[in-house]
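User: quick one, fold this
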Amino acid sequence: MVSSVFQLQCSCNNYPWGKKGKVSLAATLCAKTPDTGFEINESKNYAEMWMGDYPVMPAKDLKSGEELHKIVDDNKEQLLGKACIEKFGGVIPFLPKILSIAKALPLQIHPNKELSAELHKKNPEKFTDPNHKPEIAIALGPFEVFAGFKDNEDIQALFNALPPLERFLPKKDVNFDNEVLKQICYKILTASEQEVRTTQLELGKIPKEKYGKQAYILDLLPRLQEQYSREDPGNLVALLTMNFLNLSAGDAIYVPADAPHAYLSGNIVECMARSNNVLNTGFCLRADADSVELFTSAMTFSPHDAEEVKLGTSKTEKSIYGKSSLYAPPMSEFNVLKTSLQDGEKETIQAIAGPSVLFAISGSGKLLADGKTHDIKEGYIFFVGQGVEVSYEASSGLEVYQAYAE
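Assistant:
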């Protein structure tokens, strides 16, 4: 019988939007796990550390080196529990990550289950599973993000006030609704490079007061142009139609399947349903973009306001000493607990009827679980099987996140 609690070793990918070298929190946390051979190269970008059982970049048992998905597959009932297997199949139904973002990720949506299954059947090499990928992002510090659409009134105010945008309207004097918004996004995303460049140059010359409460657009426009180009249609879609949020440590957002989003900067905990499917149409080379027709036909118009994007926290009955808070998105695959302890404080999380992955962002202390005591400190990651109570004793301020399903 395998142990129900064991330390993991994980790895980072090197997407160009990631932060470089030791500036990347994903890389520095990954390097904290001992005896892995992972060394940070200061010339490389480190974007994401993956901490799940997905076959792409799978976590491994630190002692044996065995991949997590193989351990889970060989010990499903012990580690996942019958209820979780019946509900989600014989896999960990979520995928936690640490992201370190230096510049905008591609403007993207994650297709819903029906579309994912269809795309996976047609092109399994690109769409590697049939699942959806709703996700949450929890800020570990300042975090900038485009997510969901603005209120239609705010979008219409821009198009009424800014003459260069008239070229993207389906007709003059149109009343904005979701169908009109879809047509506008399609026209922007399919516009020629010359049209996109001209529009951005013209927008940059319009006085700030014309933008009203959305004058931040003029501050962000040159920044996005520098990161990608004046020909990138993502600049226009994101700035003109999408909510821009500037979040602080502990703030979180929920991004449902089919909702457009693009993370702009910061360090975050990200957790999602177990999938790697994505459709990109902006903040990327046009040759790398997916079908605009597919993107715009699939995208959802919820959330449709900045406040709708935000995900709050609540108290949790799983906490014995009240040192933990709960992020509970409106989906079934996972929740996330955040435990924050000062020097000498303790917390106990009651047994969960499903698997967990827990990871320390800062501090140090002891982890007591399944009759054993483990050191836990910044960057350490553990898998915890179903039915296991977990306790922490902080020797120095300890912050731990625990993603779980039940």
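User: anything notable?
Assistant: The radius of gyration is 22 Å.
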